[in-house]
């Protein structure tokens, strides 16, 4: 399939190390994918689903110990520890390579090695990048075929170039004690072993498109961000784009596929999805910031996805989709998860494959169960999805899951203040990563687990991008859909109604919307967000726009401790922003 010596040599080395019985190059054809699917049905790695109701769809159950990203087993392996920074686990490459080599030695005996050349980003895009992943998992191979532009097309794009990311994956024994997700940004390499799950194993995603790419972006002067991209088309037919960074399981996919409230639909507004997880952004010839979606599919959270919360996501998953760790409805051989509908199957297998019925205490689907679905299935996929240039971004939105403290929305005073707003983000942890759920932790730019180098240098890079963008820079905002009332219920209706907030944001970006200046930035008054057709009062809105200085002062103490970890890597601009905010809070 290729004469590229750098690829051929590397694959030979991987074969010599892993010692598979067979090697199969993935060409990207339907025929080959179908053969692999049939083979996986034979071994039970995949389970076929009802082909009338869910054509082309399959179910996969991961190992019960392998259901989420493992941040404590994820490493940045660069020569100097300080380049990994205080928020990453560092593993000296001098030790990492020999340690890992021992684990990979012979790990594919009796198995086939699949060689997957893939492109991140639209074909022909100046922003696109190429990788080659070798893996011994058919599930990973078929998932990569959905999530990336994979096969011969990638080798054609690559030609004889040496500029590609080496991705070595093996599920090995799936032993959690020997699990390593290692990134070598200085070598363009990722070595992942003993996991077969999503972000640990589909290496185009977080490993490449964020950890390695963030390092490349810093070096090359662009941005690799954990952001969804949404287009809002006005009744005149003009579409404007926003990019939003929320931590895992905090609403990116939902916002990316939102259905406008009726009041906007009636006027002729439309919403288009460009991406739901990863945005690569560079400055275009006109000086504005342009974003592409690095991926070709969605790896979305299943629980809570339903015909009301996200009908577009649901429609996206009705064909050619891989479901992971959801429940199997034995009556009609379809899938189910908590929050899909109010009719749980009477006769089912849970995500572990054990008999399940609604009277049981345990969940049918794992809280981090997922769908892997082609973007082309999405009813609202943007016609710019494959545009090599990407889309111009008018607003960047940060957000997290905060029961208190963070208001529904506020705007940063300028880019520098916006970088500060991103750097102090915090969010309650979710099931997307192993460990405790619901603990507030600082998660700057939603990149805490994904920044491939020192986060202090990353903030500096953001500041520099702002200088280059000048007055063409997108405006920066922060949102929180997750404020709770005293009974623990979400106050804001969220989902499609988040468009009401996006409309204020776009209004601010073009200078038409009103705001008041507060200690933390610009906020709308309750009159500035359109509540027409919504059973939600201005008093309730005022409540979630409220900023409690005491809570904020407390929060800033935690920011101060967090910042202290960066020593002289903390940009002085951010330190000054913190001091200024503390003064304004009194
Ligand atoms: N209350 C409320 N919940 C929301 C909202 N948007 C999303 N959620 C819930 O948050 C969870 C995660 O949402 P997703 O959109 O899948 O999050 P994500 O950021 O794409 O997650 P990753 O794919 O892990 O990066 C789901 O259970 C959603 O139902 C919202 O506006 N309000
Ligand atoms: O990477 C994964 O496994 C799933 C995901 O999108 C996230 O956790 O952000
Ligand atoms: Mn998502």
UniProtKB/TrEMBL annotation:
Functional description taken from the UniProt entry: Catalyzes the conversion of oxaloacetate (OAA) to phosphoenolpyruvate (PEP), the rate-limiting step in the metabolic pathway that produces glucose from lactate and other precursors derived from the citric acid cycle.
UniProt-listed InterPro entries: PEP_carboxykin_GTP_CS (IPR018091), PEP_carboxykinase_C (IPR013035), PEP_carboxykinase_GTP (IPR008209), PEP_carboxykinase_GTP_C (IPR035077), PEP_carboxykinase_GTP_N (IPR035078), PEP_carboxykinase_N (IPR008210)
High-level lineage: Bacteria, Bacillati, Bacillota, Clostridia, Eubacteriales
SUPFAM superfamilies documented for this protein: PEP carboxykinase N-terminal domain, PEP carboxykinase-like
PANTHER family according to UniProt: PHOSPHOENOLPYRUVATE CARBOXYKINASE, PHOSPHOENOLPYRUVATE CARBOXYKINASE [GTP]-RELATED
Chemical reaction(s) catalysed: oxaloacetate + GTP = phosphoenolpyruvate + GDP + CO2
Record-given protein name: Phosphoenolpyruvate carboxykinase [GTP]
Name of the encoding gene: pckG
Organism of origin: Yanshouia hominis
Pfam families according to UniProt: PEPCK_GTP (PF00821), PEPCK_N (PF17297)
EC number per UniProt: 4.1.1.32
Keyword Ribonucleoprotein: no
Protein residues bound to substrate: 69, 197-199, 248, 368-370
Record localization: Cytoplasm
């Amino acid at each position: 399939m290729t004469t590229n010596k750098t690829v051929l040599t590397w694959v030979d080395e991987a074969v010599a190390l892993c010692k598979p019985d067979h090697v199969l190059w993935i060409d990207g054809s339907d025929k080959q994918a179908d053969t692999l699917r049939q083979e996986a049905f034979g071994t039970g790695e995949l389970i076929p689903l009802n082909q009338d109701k869910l054509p082309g769809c399959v179910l996969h159950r991961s190992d019960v110990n392998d259901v989420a990203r493992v941040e404590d087993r994820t490493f940045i392996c660069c020569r100097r520890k300080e380049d990994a920074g205080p928020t990453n686990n560092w593993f000296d490459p001098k030790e990492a390579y020999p340690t890992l080599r021992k684990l990979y030695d012979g790990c594919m005996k009796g198995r086939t090695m699949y060689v997957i050349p893939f492109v991140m980003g639209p074909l022909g895009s100046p922003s696109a990048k190429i990788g080659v992943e070798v893996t011994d998992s058919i599930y990973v191979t078929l998932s990569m075929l959905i999530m990336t532009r994979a096969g011969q097309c990638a080798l054609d794009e690559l030609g004889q170039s040496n500029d590609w990311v080496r991705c070595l994956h093996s599920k090995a024994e799936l032993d959690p004690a020997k699990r390593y997700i290692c990134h070598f940004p200085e070598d363009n390499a990722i070595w992942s072993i003993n996991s077969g799950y999503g972000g640990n194993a589909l290496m185009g995603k977080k490993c490449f498109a964020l950890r390695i790419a963030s390092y490349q972006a810093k070096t090359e002067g662009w941005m690799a961000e954990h952001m969804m991209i949404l287009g809002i088309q006005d009744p005149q037919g003009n579409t404007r784009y926003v990019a939003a960074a929320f931590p895992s399981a905090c609403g990116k996919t939902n916002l990316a596929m939102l259905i406008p409230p009726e009041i906007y639909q009636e006027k002729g507004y439309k919403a288009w999805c460009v991406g739901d997880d990863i945005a690569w952004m560079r400055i275009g010839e006109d000086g504005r910031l342009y974003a592409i979606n690095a991926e070709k599919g969605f790896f979305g959270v299943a629980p809570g996805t339903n015909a009301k919360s996200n009908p577009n996501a649901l429609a996206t998953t009705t064909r050619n989709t891989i479901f992971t760790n959801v429940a199997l409805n034995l009556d009609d051989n379809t899938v189910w998860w908590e929050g899909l509908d109010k009719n749980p199957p009477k006769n089912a297998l849970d995500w572990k494959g054990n008999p399940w019925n609604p009277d049981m205490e345990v969940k049918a689907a794992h809280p981090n169960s997922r769908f892997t679905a082609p973007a082309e299935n999405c009813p609202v996929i943007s016609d710019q999805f494959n545009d090599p240039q990407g889309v111009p971004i008018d607003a960047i939105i940060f957000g997290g899951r905060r029961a208190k403290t963070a208001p529904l929305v506020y705007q940063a005073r300028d880019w520098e203040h916006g970088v500060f707003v991103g750097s102090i983000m915090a969010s309650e942890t979710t099931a997307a990563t192993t460990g405790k759920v619901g603990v507030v932790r600082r998660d700057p730019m939603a990149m805490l687990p994904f920044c491939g180098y020192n986060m202090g240098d990353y903030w500096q890079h953001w500041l520099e991008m702002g200088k280059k963008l000048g007055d063409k820079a997108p405006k920066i905002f922060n949102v929180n859909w997750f404020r709770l009332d005293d009974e623990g219920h979400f106050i804001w209706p969220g989902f499609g109604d988040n468009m009401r907030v996006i409309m204020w944001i776009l209004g601010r970006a073009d200078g038409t919307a009103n705001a008041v200046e507060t200690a933390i930035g610009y906020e709308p008054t309750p009159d500035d967000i359109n509540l027409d057709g919504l059973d939600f009062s201005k008093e309730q809105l005022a409540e979630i726009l409220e900023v409690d200085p005491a809570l904020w002062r407390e929060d800033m103490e935690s920011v101060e401790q967090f910042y202290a970890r960066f020593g002289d890597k903390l940009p002085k601009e951010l330190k000054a922003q913190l001091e200024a905010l503390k003064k304004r809070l009194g």
